[in-house]
From TrEMBL:
<dbReference type="GO" id="GO:0006437">
    <property type="term" value="P:tyrosyl-tRNA aminoacylation"/>
</dbReference>
<dbReference type="InterPro" id="IPR024088">
    <property type="entry name" value="Tyr-tRNA-ligase_bac-type"/>
</dbReference>
<dbReference type="InterPro" id="IPR002942">
    <property type="entry name" value="S4_RNA-bd"/>
</dbReference>
<comment type="function">
    <text>Catalyzes the attachment of tyrosine to tRNA(Tyr) in a two-step reaction: tyrosine is first activated by ATP to form Tyr-AMP and then transferred to the acceptor end of tRNA(Tyr).</text>
</comment>
<keyword id="KW-0694">RNA-binding</keyword>
<dbReference type="Pfam" id="PF01479">
    <property type="entry name" value="S4"/>
</dbReference>
<dbReference type="InterPro" id="IPR024108">
    <property type="entry name" value="Tyr-tRNA-ligase_bac_2"/>
</dbReference>
<dbReference type="InterPro" id="IPR036986">
    <property type="entry name" value="S4_RNA-bd_sf"/>
</dbReference>
<keyword id="KW-0963">Cytoplasm</keyword>
<dbReference type="Pfam" id="PF00579">
    <property type="entry name" value="tRNA-synt_1b"/>
</dbReference>
<dbReference type="InterPro" id="IPR002305">
    <property type="entry name" value="aa-tRNA-synth_Ic"/>
</dbReference>
<feature type="short sequence motif" description="'HIGH' region">
    <location>
        <begin position="66"/>
        <end position="75"/>
    </location>
</feature>
<keyword id="KW-0436">Ligase</keyword>
<comment type="subunit">
    <text>Homodimer.</text>
</comment>
<feature type="short sequence motif" description="'KMSKS' region">
    <location>
        <begin position="250"/>
        <end position="254"/>
    </location>
</feature>
<dbReference type="InterPro" id="IPR014729">
    <property type="entry name" value="Rossmann-like_a/b/a_fold"/>
</dbReference>
<keyword id="KW-0547">Nucleotide-binding</keyword>
């Protein structure tokens, strides 16, 4: 969201900012950085001013259904924003949707999503928070589970809640509309999901709720229900979906264009460096904790002739250090430069195999460097296989007994002792 256009175009925002302190204006700038939408901006300014006047931190909510145990950098876009708001002194509520996971979020789906079992939810939730704590400040994070109040609602409470929203309004939701027009089944329980997510905001008395752009309907439901229950409605902040390594599709494990935050430091560092120069600036805005002024200065340096790879190295150092520490990031950078020069890292897997003389395709498979002999042969055809630094061109090569450094591409190595 472009900050200047928001403030210039909205008279209500300008009015809310009349006489506002520099701290409030800074907090608004931090909130708007990289976001897709902040609604309503004027209400958020008023909340910030009240917080400054009373010394009472605002309550900022992020709800996550633990549908998978691993977090990638795309998930951290919202977590980064939470950390920025924490650093302004506000309270972050990390809400685990253990109850709503039993329903299944229909957002953006063409079919009903199978609900998770309680056992899956518990295991995933534990891993989720451990990983999120690599971004958030645990000392300033309130962890809640929505089963605390959702289980207590009971049948009567659920009916009373459902009475606060109409079917017509529910059908304004794009994915429901598409499925209805296509004759695709919509289960009644799917209508309950946005209601329950909205009720979370009532239970937590949240001032601001964050989510991806695909969550806007659910976030607005929270505003509606808070008003129904006599509370001041929360503001909503949507963050864009992060493009993955390919720079085209959103980051996704299924698309293979992701960086998992628990991946080893060397892999993480090298993957960040693999993104395009253009995508780098998007990642700086959404993933870096540098100020906008610092990022603008880096961009100006590149425009004046600085090699963009040097700047990308700074991004790789920052992201790798966040999840692995500065020392590991420094070692990963050394490893990257060593591999780029064709060198062999100091620490590589040691593998012992029998059956000498052994065909190179079988060796690659047994050493865990290729998933199959056919894939090994494809790598050889592409010139991606080296033995002791020499490119292998013969798929029929058989290696006698001995010890060899076997390399696939720039990142995969093994010291293979063949007997």
């Amino acid at each position: 969201m472009d900050r200047s256009s928001v403030l210039a175009a909205d008279a209500a925002v300008a009015e809310a900012l009349q006489g506002a302190s520099e701290a409030v204006r800074h907090a608004l700038a931090v909130t708007l950085r990289g976001c897709e939408e902040l609604l309503p901006v004027a209400d958020w300014v008023r909340k910030l001013r009240r917080s400054e006047a009373t010394g009472q931190p605002l309550r900022i909510k992020l709800g996550l259904d633990p549908t998978a145990p691993d977090i990638h950098l795309g998930h951290t876009v919202v977590l980064n924003k939470l950390r920025q708001l924490q650093d302004l002194g506000h309270t972050v509520i990390f809400l685990i949707g253990d109850f709503t996971s039993l329903i299944g979020d229909p957002s953006g789906r063409n079919t009903t999503r199978p609900p998770l079992t309680p056992q899956q939810i518990k295991a995933n939730a534990e891993t989720y928070y451990q990983q999120a704590s690599l971004v958030l400040d645990p000392a300033r994070t309130e962890i809640r589970y929505n089963s605390e109040w959702s289980d207590a609602l009971g049948a009567r409470g659920m009916i009373e809640l459902a009475a606060k929203y109409t079917v017509a309004r529910m059908m304004e939701r794009e994915d429901f509309t598409k499925r209805f027009r296509a004759g695709t089944p919509i289960s009644i329980h799917e209508f309950l999901y946005p209601l329950m997510q909205g009720y979370d905001s009532v239970a937590l008395k949240s001032d601001l709720e964050l989510g991806g752009t695909d969550q806007k309907f659910n976030l607005l439901m929270g505003r509606h229900l808070q008003a129904e229950y006599g509370q001041e409605p929360q503001c909503i902040l949507t963050m864009p979906l992060l493009e993955g390594l390919d720079g085209v599709e959103k980051m996704s494990k299924s698309k293979g264009n992701y960086i998992g935050i628990t991946e080893d430091a060397n892999t993480m560092f090298a993957k960040v460096l693999s993104i395009s120069d253009e995508l780098m600036w998007r990642w700086f805005t959404l993933l870096s904790f540098r100020s906008e002024a610092e990022i603008a200065a880096l961009r100006a340096q590149v425009q004046q002739g600085r090699n963009p790879k040097e700047v990308k190295l700074e991004l790789a150092r920052e992201i790798t250090a966040r999840f692995h520490g500065a020392a590991a990031a420094a070692r990963a950078e050394e490893d990257f430069h060593l591999r780029a020069r064709g060198g062999v890292p100091d620490e590589i897997p040691e593998v012992r195999l029998g059956g000498a003389p052994l065909g190179i395709g079988v060796l690659l498979k047994q050493a865990g460097l290729a998933p199959s002999t056919s894939e090994a042969n494809r790598l050889i055809d592409g010139g991606g296989v080296r033995v002791d630094g020499s490119v292998v061109t013969d798929k029929g090569l058989k290696l006698p007994a001995g010890t060899y450094v076997v390399q696939i591409g720039k990142r995969k190595f093994a010291r293979v002792t063949l007997a």
